[in-house]
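I'm stuck. Please check this protein.
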Amino acid sequence: MTRFTNNLTGDMGISNEEFDKLFKRLNDAFSSKLKKQVIKEISILKNSERDYRLLEISDTIIISIFKSTKKESAQLCVGYPFPLATRHLKTYFSGYKVSIFIRDEPVRKIQRKYIFNHLKNTYNASLNVFDNLNLFREKLFLTNKQFTQKCFYVDLYDFIGDSIIGLKFLDSLRTFFKIPASKCIVFSKHNKHIPAQYNILNLTDFADTVNFYENSTIIIPVLIDNQFDVFLKLLTSIILKNVRIIIPSRNMFCLFSDKGNQIYWYKSRDILFKTNSIDNYMENVVSIFTGLNHQNLHNKIKVHKLTKNVFINPFSSLAEKSISVTDCSSICEHLLNNGYKVFVSAGFQQDDYLKRLTVRNIKILYDSGFKDLSEKLKSNDIGLVISTDSGIAHMTATLGIATIVIYHSFFWDSYSKQSISNDAFGGFCRSHLPMIPVIDSGILSAVDAIYHPTMSQHQAKIIKTALKEMYKASNKTVFKLHNMLVTKFDNQNYFYSPGKLLENVINSTNKTDSWSLVSNIWQNLPAYKISKFTFV
């Protein structure tokens, strides 16, 4: 579900006057038509088993409704999914929490203007606006030879899993700029938890490290509205005379040099993570700079050898995503009875949970962070991980360990493409990694499917051919191919059924793009994905 943060203390690039205008726009929309729509949706929820609804009213306005234990006032929110500011209305809904968000261009346009003015006033920078994307890329390409001494990547995420995923920006851009990994340094508040090929430092070390290296490239993805204040502080701390700063998702880069400071902006809306997979979203963001478009079909998925040593992580930063003690005990018992060795994560101060596990002969694995955990998984020859949708799942899959990831269906709105992408498996279960999605249950069946694959090469070829035809095709074609695959394969995995997962959002009359979401869900069909495992 939509997560909120209340620790915003910095400058978000929006003045009080501009906040007032955005709130008035939301309030007017709510009073004129959205209130009636909310009341209608709540009446539908009352008569259903669902407890969450995400309504994409337009590109700029979103409503979230989910069950509450009390009577709450509706709230207006600037920024999504993490509000930059919130105001409560005098309208109350009993048993439901209602939030109306304004996002996208109304918010980004104000922040963009702030960046331009800040760079102009602080660094005397000139703004260069490009209507032609090719000319924008050509200008960037001409700078490639000069700014290669070092490549600094700044991770602004609050969640460890997001930080691990976000390294793809560095992987793609430094490869395009032909900067070797040995010259790259990552700055992150999660530096103790990111196993990677790069040198990783704490975010607090940014200024002291970066300002020693002239003619370097700094990559700072500012993907979410509420990352703006940290970005601004970092920008202000740069005192180099010669540096290139690339800002993915904001479609701009800056050059600081003795000849003058320049801002280059491709005039377009920021690219937001809406109804596609996280990999396709990142590729779209990166392609603004590189011009490279990648079809996300992978012939091989490199996986470490399967052993009968299984690591279980029942914990998540969100309690609703965790595995109950009862379920974890049952999984451990079954695995032990079938000849597996079982290791369970100690989590973070989870002693009470571990004491309540009713299973003997399991080993509790303590760690001081993800880097330490990754070494212990290696030393214990772990061949399979069972995990909640968490940072650990993203870490182990990135390491090439087969990872079953558990997604709880109550956590997203199955009637919203955006919710399936943003809140669930549709976006974050990455098709090129050995992540095997399980919806609610079916964990033990997934274990069996990994050790005893069932899909033939002929069947896998049918899916791959359909996925190639889907690539950026019309919604009508995507729906037709999806239906064909449902007919042939929908009973392949009862614990992950693409037909059922998408039945409320995919049809031939969709006006919004379906390709990315549909293709990602089929690429993650467990039997199909396992058929592509290559053990190393």
